[in-house]
Design a protein that fits this description.
There is one protein chain. This protein is mainly β. The chain has one domain. The chain has one helix and six strands. It has a six-stranded mixed β-sheet. A hairpin with a 5-residue loop joins strand 2 and strand 3. The longest helix has 4 residues. The chain is globular and about 35 Å long.
Length: about 70
């Protein structure tokens, strides 16, 4: 079973883009929502850990975050 790491919302830019960070392994992601939802991996961190986080009822998990790279 893989490690579970919680992602923390670090920054929200005026554009609405969000940067999420894992304080355990350093994984860092940027989500953009306009014109469509996109994910950019800034720092890979532990690719094999199960990452999750939530904000206002929206939950992100490794299913979404492990499939894309920058």
């Amino acid at each position: 079973m893989s490690d579970k790491h919680q992602m923390i919302l670090e920054t929200v830019y005026p554009s609405g883009n969000e940067v999420w960070n894992c304080s355990i392994c350093g994984r860092k992601l940027m989500f953009s929502y306009e014109p469509e939802t996109d994910l950019i991996v800034i720092e890979t961190g532990n690719f094999y850990a199960s990452h999750f986080g939530s904000k206002g009822g929206l939950t992100i998990s490794s299913v979404e975050t492990n499939n894309k790279t920058n």
